[in-house]
Amino acid sequence: MSHWVKISTLEEIPSLGSRVVQSRQGDIAVFRTAEDKVFALHDKCPHKGGPLSQGIVHGEKVTCPLHGWNIGLSDGHATSPDVGSTPCIEVKLEAGEVFLKL
Amino acid sequence: MQKMKLVVIGNGMAGIRTVEELLKITPDLYEITVFGAEPHPNYNRILLSPVLAGEQTISDIILNSREWYAENGITLHTGSKVTMIDRVNRVVIAENGIEAEYDRLLLATGSNPFILPIPGNDLEGVIGFRDISDVDTMIAASAQHTHAVVIGGGLLGLEAANGLKIRGMDVTVVHKNEWLMERQLDKVSGLMLQQSLEEKGLKFMLQKDTEQLVGEKGRVRAVRFKDGQAIPADLVVMAVGIRPNDALAESAGIHCNRGIVVNDTMQTYDPRIYAVGECVVHRGVSYGLVAPLFEQGKVCATHLANFGIGRYSGSVTSTKLKVTGIDLFSAGNFMGGENTDEIVLHDKVGGVYKKLVLEGDRLVGACLYGDTVDGSWYFQMLKDGKDVHDIRDNLMFGQNHLGDTGHKGQTSAAAMPDTAEVCGCNGVCKGTIVKSIKENGLFTLDEVRKHTKASASCGSCTGLVEQILASCIGGAYQPADTSNKPMCGCTDHSHGVVRQAIRDKKYLDIPTVMQEMQWRTPNGCASCRPALNYYLISTWPHEAIDDPQSRFINERAHANIQKDGTYSVVPRMWGGITTPDELRAIADVAEKYEIPTVKCTGGARIDLLGAKKADLPKIWEDLGRAGMVSGHAYGKSIRTVKTCVGAEHCRFGTQLSMSMGVKLEKMLFGMWAPHKVKLAVSGCPRNCAEAGIKDVGVIGLESGYELYVAGNGGIKTDVAQFLCKVESDEDVMEYSGAFLQLYREEGYYLERTVHYVNRVGLDYVKSRVVEDASNRKALYERLLYALQGYEDPWLERVLDDRKRREFKIIPVEELA
Ligand code: SRM
Ligand SMILES: Cc1cc2nc3c(=O)[nH]c(=O)nc-3n(C[C@H](O)[C@H](O)[C@H](O)COP(=O)(O)OP(=O)(O)OC[C@H]3O[C@@H](n4cnc5c(N)ncnc54)[C@H](O)[C@@H]3O)c2cc1C
Ligand code: SF4
Ligand code: FES
User: Fold this and answer.
1) B-proximal residues of A, 32-91, CB under 8 Å
2) Is the dihedral of CA B559, B561, B567, B568 positive or negative?
């Protein structure tokens, strides 16, 4: 059974940045956009497994640090013409606190 | 709100490209209707030649499928030739009765093949070479008949002849002039081309005037010339030129003069009506290649979108012939004339001919046969009007004569088999690139990079990729204009314009730049943000905001990310000198943090590879205790100053190169730059520190030092150029500091010193740094000011809890 787990406050994630959460399913990258929306993806690029958490965040995308694929934060899909996707994790923001569904 | 109505007449390459550009900028402004006389959706007309040659099929060359029109809400009427434009009621009417009203009308009716006004030109079997139905006719004829005659030995005629030959016909090309393709080639290269084509089995009749086509039962049977000679012909293809298709516009009373006359915004004399493509005459010129038409489309789209920013000011075009196995390229004034000089290389046995035409110090024309690897390089210089004085001696040998690593010095794309690897970084072979160009209808280098990744990493194969592109799409390929190319897709501004605005307007942070300069994206992308961040901090040191989130991970984490997500740590080793204590600390760290690999770098220091990110602050703390600081092996910044032992120990040493190197490295500690910066100091001209391939190279002599700049030992080896000779250690610091500050202030992001100096010219650099003493001192002072108070970024992160957050992982196992 999965349930909501509090991982940090919004404040602890840099704007246009991310934090890494270590979970049983592997590392999870939790992103924060300029508009303070939060997203969570498996920290593995669909290309060659690069750590997406280390990429540059822009709009609702992150650019993988290894070879520059752009991955959509809301759906984990690579931006065309690249093809592939990374699983998303449900995430919610409540009263300045970030929860993941694990 | 009701949408405005845009009607497009002509479902071809220029018209639909304009629609695509329009949809990119304002997807919702118009309700769009397109009329096309042909029964097909928009296809890549250029590739009719490979279709005729059997190298591709019609379905391969469709550019916009019917689904594309539907997805974009465009009403498409194929097989509908518009026969009337009613400008009073603003409605167009097609032959089949379909009508459409417009608020704006776009004419893109292309052109018609010119049919010689000779008896018999209306016989069956006499055609032009323009569209799919012509190709179908040729393919059908080749199955039933033997003799084909192509009238016209230009680009189109030769491509038609080649295709018909491959389809098994006996083909004769009839041409009025003394040599083939006289508008693109000079006599020597024209004759070389003829010889290559004769080897493929084509026949030629030059300086022949056709008098009449002779028929039998309505079908053509022979071609008769003015001199009385006649040859058999079951198919005659006329490829003697094209005429802008302006009949419809003319009948509607729109001003035409051998083409629909437009201004620089692509507007006709009726302000509601625009026109683009081959049907147009702009400043007295009509173009018959797609590259200029695409430029027109782009400008026209901005005006249709009511942005009204672009102006079209004409194009310089270049030519390639799309006959497999034949490599030719020509551009500009390749014939030369008064006031021009020519540089010519002719290797008869090797089948290579190159002619460059210069006017003063500018390249004005080029004609290449057999080896066209440098075609786009020449073309770029020609378009930019670049001063080639400094490189004149080497011009003929091309861009790559200094070596090009990574693909075995392979320089001719035509000679490569499909399986040969073109891009060594991403493992992309020629066949994959060709396939992608054809299947996806790619026209630009950027598009090829996006789709195949070829040339998208180190860029050393760019020349080859450009050649492949050019051989697939012919003259449609135009190298990008580097002088005012936009920074990235987020903006139309170039690096130069943005740098200047940051200085003039004193912008201090990225959001302000983006807002004031109208960025299209809310917070840029991974290519513009790092560039903006650098421009800000280098222009306004101590004032601008340095945004860590706009730095590439290596600079944010102060270590190099590895393929498995671990990091490497390279402590600074000033001038390559170390001590037992430092070595001991490195050894301890390696053991304590289980570093898998310890290696000497190419930069003469030690790399600890495979550190976990979370361990980085602890590693730095341990190294810091032994007095070591960040080596910035990760930054667009000062990297290393290599030294040789020099006069301290060496029997030949003339200067204290080690101490000179350490002084330079200490001075430059913490210097961010457009790209990485490497120096070297050698104690004598034997140059054991390899100063000849560094951004700044210093060589000791009995009487002082020689300074060299803009060397590069990476992707393409470039030997550093002599800047000046100086006497003292202080001079070395001042001159090299001033040079680097000039580069820091004027270089574009990711431009190494060699590229910067190539762009602005060494003479300019000398005038600023060597000849103008007060400017040199001012530059030097600005550098020292920028570097004032720089703290070791490692220590900063050891001490500052907030900055350490970057390295902390949030564990949740115990909760889950
Ligand atoms: C570690 C090192 C290789 C080694 O084990 O020796 C190295 C490693 C990398 N080099 Fe290098 N280069 C290293 C010396 C060099 C040298 C030799 C030198 O510095 O004397 C060169 C040629 C000299 C030059 O730069 O002119 C060199 C030319 C390049 C280039 C091509 C640059 C160019 O302008 O052509 C790149 C690509 C780039 O920077 O865009 C590159 C990029 C890289 C990157 C950063 C690739 C990347 O973006 O991730 C590599 C990081 C590996 C890692 O994860 O740590 N590396 N690289 C060397 C570190 C030296 C140091 O102590 O700081
Ligand atoms: C065989 C061949 C090879 C070529 N090779 C190259 C090359 O290597 N490099 C290069 O740059 N260029 C090449 N070109 C030229 C290039 O294809 C043209 O420059 C380009 O297609 C012109 O675009 P356009 O939109 O102006 O005209 P077109 O693409 O011809 O489109 C015009 C369309 O309008 C339609 N039309 C005309 N009148 C009406 C009407 N009244 N109502 C409805 N529809 C109408 C026509 O049927 C046609 O489909 C080649 C051309 C050919 C034929
Ligand atoms: S260290 Fe340099 S040469 Fe070696 S693989 Fe990496 S980038 Fe290429
Ligand atoms: S691993 Fe992400 S782009 Fe290659």
Assistant:
1) 34-35, 48-51, 54-59, 63, 65-68, 70, 81
2) negative
